[in-house]
Amino acid sequence: MPLRNQPIVTESISATTAILEMRGISQIFPGVKALDQVSISLYPGQVTALIGENGAGKSTLVKILTGIYRPNEGEILIDGQAVTFASAQAAIDAGVTAIHQETVLFDELTVGENIFLGHAPRGRFGTIDWASIHARSRDLLRQLESDIDPKIRLKDLSIAQRHLVAIARALSVDARIVIMDEPTAALSRKEIDDLFRIVEGLKRQGKAILFISHKFDEVYEIAENFAVFRDGKAVGHGRLKETPQAEIVRLMVGRDVHDVFPKLSVEIGGTVLAVQNYCHPTEFHDISFELKRGEILGVYGLIGAGRSELCQSLFGITRPSSGRLVLDGRPVEIRSSADAIAAGIVYVPEERGRHGLALPMPIFQNMSLPSLARTSRAGFLSAANELKLARQYAERLDLRAAALSVPVGTLSGGNQQKVVIGKWLATQPKVIILDEPTKGIDIGSKAAVHGFISELASQGLSIIMVSSELPEILGMSDRVMVMREGLQAGFFERAGATAEQLVRAATGNA
Amino acid sequence: MSDKTVNPARRAIPDRLGTPLTRSLASWEVLLFGVAVLIFMANSLASPYFLDAWNLSDATFNFTEKAMIAFAMALLIIAGEIDLSVAAIIALASTAMGAAAQAGVDTPGLVAIGIGTGLACGAFNGFLVAGLKLPSIVVTIGTMSLFRGISYLVLGDKAYGGYPESFAYFGQGYLFWVFSFEFGLFLTCAALFAVLLHRTNFGRQVFVIGNNEFAARFSGVPVERVKFILFLLTGLMSGIASVCLTSRLGSTRPSIAQGWELEVVTMVVLGGVSILGGSGTILGVVIAAFVMGLVTFGLGLLNVPGIVMSIFVGLLLIITIALPILARRIKQARKS
C-alpha cells in the first residue's frame, strides 16, 4: 500500500485560513515520545476529527492545547500569531476551550455556579453578580436548546443534562476554538443527535472544532476534515468527503502487525476455563467463552466496553449477577480474590500502582504476598523463604533493582510490571489475566513483556490478555474476543483476523 | 563498584542494602531511644529523688495501661484505621465491673466481665467499620460518646467502689521486688504484639492494607476480616487496661480515663507509626511509652502542674514529628 509511510494530503483543504495551527509539536515524557513532530490545523466553521488508537497521542495534544502540558518542540499559532500557553488559564484567554470525556462538575453546586465557577461575573464591590450568572447561564443553555433552570443543583439533573451543562461551561468563556474529547462516549443515539445539532450551531457561529472520537459513523456525520495519529505521529489528514473509511482504518492501524510481536507457536491443549453466560448488573451481559491450555485469548474493545469489569469478576473482585465458571471440568464459585487465587486464576491489573502493588513496601514482600501460605510456617513469616521466592522470579523475569528489599515504588514502570507478574507466577496459576499488560511501558520493555507472555503460554499457562492496542492483540493472540458496550461482538481466529475487522466489530460499524 | 567488570544483566540482586548496623542506626527507634536517654539524664540531674528504684517503678504506672492499648492502636493505625473510643471502652468496662462487684461477683468473674465488655465494644466498632464499611474516625467518635454515655447514665455523679481485696492485685501487685504486675503485663503484651505485627502473615497483611488497600484486596487479603480482628484486639486491650486501672484506683467514676484516647494516639505517633498508615514498629511504641512516662514523671517530681505537663507532651510530639520531616526537606533543598 502506498499509504503506509507517507501522509496523504488532499490539496486545497479549504479556501479559508486556519484559526489555529500547530506546527512540528513534540512532547517527550521520560522513556516515551508521546508526540513526534505533529502538525494540525483547525478552520473556522469546520469540524476536524482527530482519529487514532488509544495511546496514539490524542489526549496529549488536547493537554497541550489546553495549556496543561508545554510541548518540548514546535509552535502554536492563533490567527497566524505564535502563542505559548503558560497555564490552563492562558489557553482559555487565547480562546481555546475543551469539553472533556469526563468534565469535572460539582454535584452540590447549582447549574449557574457550575457554568461560571472560576470566572464568575463580579458586581460593584467584587461580590458575585448572581443576576448576571443566571441570565447568562440561561442564554448559554438556550443556545443549546435547553431550558434547564440555572438555579437548580447539578445532582438533580440527568446525565444528558449534565453534559449540556458541561458544554455550556466550555462555551461560557467565549471561545473560538472548541475541543470535544470523545463527547459521545456516554450518550445515547438521541442525545448524540442533540449534541450534533449543537455542533452545527457552533459551526454556524464560525467556531473551529476539534472532535475526537473512535466512532467512524459519527466522524463522517459531523466532521469535514480529519487527522489520523499513530504512535505519536501524524500519519495523514485530509477531507472526509474524499476519503473512504477503509483508508482511515488503514492509516490508524498502519504497520504489518503480525511481524512485530511474534508469538511462539504453541500446541493448544484441552479446555481449562469455560465461562458460561456471565452477566453483570450494569457492565457486561451474557459473556461465554472457552480458554484452552497454552492459549492466549485477546480481548479487544473500546474503553468502557466492559473488558476490565469482566476480568475483575472472573477474579472475584466483583460478583457476577449470573453465569457459571468451569475450571478443569469442575464448576467453581469465586467469591473473593482469595478464592480465585486458590483456584488458580490470577489477575494483573491495568493500574499497577493502584491495584497491583504496595509501592512503599519491599520488592520481596510484594512478590510473596499471595504466596505467604507457602513461604510461611504455621502463620509465621520466613524472610529467608520470601527472599528465595522473590529471587527465583526476579531472575526469571530479569528484574533490575538495587536489592530485593528496596521499595517497589523506586523501580521503573517496566520493572514494577515484572514484580506484579512475578508475584502472580509465584502462585503457580493455571489462568493468568493480563489487563493492558504493556500500558505505560517503554518500547524496549514492551518487547520483553511480550516475549515473556509468549513463553508462559508455551509452558502451558492459559492467558486472557485485555488490550486496546491492535498490534498487540493481533500479534499475540491465538483468538480474539471483541467486546462492545458490554456484549460479545465477535470472535476472530488469529489466522483470519485483520485490524479492520476488529475495529469494525468494536465500533459497531458494518 | 565492580560495575565495569561484571555484566549487569547477569549480576545477582542482593537481598538487602548495607549492613544490619547501618540500617538500624538510621531508624526512628534509635533516635527516639536517644531522646529517652537524654530525658532520663535530665531527670536524674534535676531531681535527687528520680534515681530511686521504687520511684522509677512508680513512674511506670504513668504509661503501662495506655501503652497496652497503644500496641493494638498501632496495628489499627498502620492498617489505616483508628479507634478513638478506647478510653470510653475503659469507662464502660469499669462500670460493668463495678456493677458486678456490687452484685457480689468475685475477682475472676470481674476480670471476665471487664475483658468481655472490651471485646464486645471492639466487636461493635469492628462490625460498623468492617461490616458496614463506615469510616472508622466517625464511627469511633460516635461510640466514644455512646460507651461513656452509658457509664454516665448508670453512675450519674456516683461512684462504684467495694471491689474485692484480691482484685487489687492487677493494679497494685508486684511480681517481685519493684517489678509490678502491670509492668510485667506491659512487657508481655509488647513481646506478643511485636511478634504478631512483625513475624506473622497477619502482621504482613496489616502493613499491606495500610499501604494500599486496593492492592491488598487484589492480592487475596481478607481486608474486612483483618480490620474486624484489629478492632476486636483494640477492644480486648482496652478491657485489660480497664481491669488494671480500676484495680489500681479501687473505684469507678464515669469520668475514668477521660482523654486517654489522645494520649494513646500520641504515644503511637511518637513511636514512629505513620498516622497515614503503612509503617511503624512495636519497638518504637515501647520506647515512646517510656519517653512519655519519663517526661510526665520527671516533671511531676519537679512539682510542675499537670497543665504545664500537657504543654510539654504536646511540644514533644510536635518537635519529634517535625524534626525528621524538616531534616529531609533541608537535605532535598541542598540536593537541588
Task: Give your account of this protein's structure.
The complex is a heterodimer of chains A (510) and B (336). Chain A is an alpha/beta fold and 510 residues long. Chain A has four domains: 14-95 and 175-254, 3-Layer(aba) Sandwich (Rossmann fold), CATH 3.40.50; 103-174, no CATH class; 256-344 and 431-510, Rossmann fold (3-Layer(aba) Sandwich); 352-428, no CATH class. Chain A has helices at 58-65, 88-93, 111-116, 130-143, 159-171, 189-204, 216-222, 245-253, 257-260, 307-314, 337-343, 352-356, 363-368, 372-375, 383-396, 413-425, 443-458, 470-476, 499-507, and strands spanning 20-29, 32-42, 47-51, 73-78, 81-83, 96-99, 177-181, 208-212, 225-230, 233-239, 271-279, 287-292, 296-301, 322-327, 330-332, 345-348, 431-435, 462-466, 479-484, 487-493. In chain A, the strands form four sheets. A six-stranded mixed sheet of chain A has the order 6-7-8-3-9-10, sandwiched between helices. In chain A, strands 16-17-18-13-19-20 form a six-stranded mixed sheet, sandwiched between helices. In chain A, strand 7 (177-181), helix 6 (189-204) and strand 8 form a beta-alpha-beta unit. In chain A, helix 15 (383-396) crosses helix 16 (413-425). The longest helix of chain A is centred in the middle third of the chain and has 16 residues, at 189-204. By secondary structure, chain B is mainly alpha-helical. Chain B has a single domain (61-326), classed as Orthogonal Bundle (ABC transporter involved in vitamin B12 uptake, BtuC). In chain B, 71% of the residues lie in helices and 1% in strands. Chain B has helices spanning 20-25, 28-46, 53-60, 64-78, 86-102, 107-131, 136-155, 169-172, 181-199, 201-211, 213-217, 223-249, 260-270, 282-301, 306-335, and strands at 174-176, 179-180. In chain B, strands 1-2 form a two-stranded antiparallel ribbon. The radius of gyration of chain B is 22 Å and the shape is globular. The interface between A and B is large, with 42 and 29 residues.
